[in-house]
Design goal:
The protein has 2 domains: 66 residues, Helicase, Ruva Protein, domain 3; 264 residues, Vaccinia Virus protein VP39 (Rossmann fold), CATH 3.40.50.150. Helix content is 38%, strand content 15%.
């Protein structure tokens, strides 16, 4: 399409035809062409429809054609427009981060439930804490922060969604990733959504957890880094050999490192469980109060539920656990409830999404208010 004699409708129709010839992964060619026209003209679809017969200028047609060419090559729509809605929030996205999926919204739901539950419990246990008048509904607001880390934050979709939907100030979220480019995207989204005061961008590699930085990735944390109340993660869990079978939109454009979960898809889960256990041990060694709670919330593929449960069992009960040499002493130290059937007072639950799939694994340590 090179002529400036096209009407808007004719350009959209031609664009849809070109997409149909070149991209068999699109469900509705005309709709996508219409939406791309909206971004080219910077107007709503509704306004385009009522102005179908207007001529499109040559410069706008050039922009539109560029979008169509990219989409025909199976570049994801979200990367073309640099935007993806997640949890009713608009996020900036580019090729350096995974595109947030609706399936992950349940991870935010469960995280918020746990944060509010923990907040109310802490406040109930601190009746002399001061209430802030600008935070109605909180039982007894305290100065102590609830510390959270979002492992593999990518675009920051999970961290930002939590920060934006948690209404109180006593929260500190470490948005962690091993990609500086991803952290720059997360920073942009934190600023765009006015939650940068609740979020600390953190360079962290779960495969080498001794490396962690913050403050524009130049200042190293001290040992307090291992003192999170809640760990949240949607880790890579595609089996390495399955990556080549993903759609072209995914395997050709989205960052492979954020998809590949290793030979069995569970490489990162093992490391995350080790990290969670190290946080519990650190609290024990620091002589923290016996009612201290910790929570690990993970997105999972329900096909690997039993394998993840096995990792959980090996981490805390298994004979081949790396901490087995001092297991009896360890059990004694962290046994807050003297529960012989569950000597480390830790539980795992699997939460289903709206389609009935077990999408989230939630592991609680020290929770005794069931």
């Amino acid at each position: 399409m090179k002529s400036n004699n096209f009407t808007i409708f004719e350009a959209i129709k031609a664009g849809a035809g070109y997409l149909k010839e070149n991209n068999d992964e699109i469900l509705d060619y005309f709709k996508e062409s219409l939406l791309l026209m909206g971004y080219a003209l910077n107007v709503s679809s509704e306004k385009i429809i009522i102005n179908y017969e207007n001529k499109i200028t040559e410069d706008k047609l050039k922009i539109f054609n560029g979008y169509i060419e990219r989409r025909a090559k199976k570049e994801p729509f979200a990367y073309i427009i640099n935007n993806k809605e997640f949890y009713s929030i608009d996020f900036f996205v580019n090729k350096n981060v995974l595109i947030p999926r609706p399936d992950t919204e349940i991870l935010v739901d469960e995280s918020l439930k746990e944060i509010y539950r923990l907040n109310n419990k802490i406040n109930s246990a601190n009746p002399h804490s001061h209430h802030k008048c600008n935070e109605p509904g909180i039982k007894n607001n305290i100065a102590q922060n609830i510390s959270i880390i979002d492992l593999g934050t990518g675009s920051g979709a999970i961290a930002v969604s939590i920060a934006k939907n948690y209404k109180y100030s006593n929260i500190e979220i470490f948005a962690a990733d091993n990609s500086y480019k991803a952290l720059n995207v997360a920073k942009k989204n934190a600023i765009l959504n006015n939650v940068e005061n609740k979020i600390k961008l953190t360079y962290f590699n779960i495969l080498n957890p001794n490396i962690y930085w913050y403050n524009e990735y130049s200042k190293k944390y001290n040992t307090d880094f291992y003192s999170f109340d809640i760990i949240i993660s949607n880790p890579p869990y595609i089996i390495s050999s399955d990556v080549d079978f993903l759609s072209d939109e995914v395997k050709k454009y989205e960052p492979c490192a954020a998809l590949d979960g290793g030979i069995d898809g569970l490489k990162f889960y093992r490391k995350i469980f080790e990290f969670f256990l190290s946080i519990i041990k650190n609290s024990v060694n620091s002589n923290l109060t016996s009612n201290k709670e910790f929570c690990l919330i993970l997105e999972i593929d329900q096909r690997y539920k039993e394998e993840i449960k096995k990792i959980y069992e090996l981490t805390f009960y298994g004979k081949d656990n790396k901490y087995n040499n001092s297991r009896e002493e360890y059990k004694y130290k962290i046994n807050t409830n003297n529960n012989k059937s569950n000597p480390v007072n830790i539980t795992i639950d699997f939460i289903k999404d709206l389609s009935g799939k077990e999408r989230v694994a939630k592991i609680n340590y020290g929770k005794n208010d069931n």
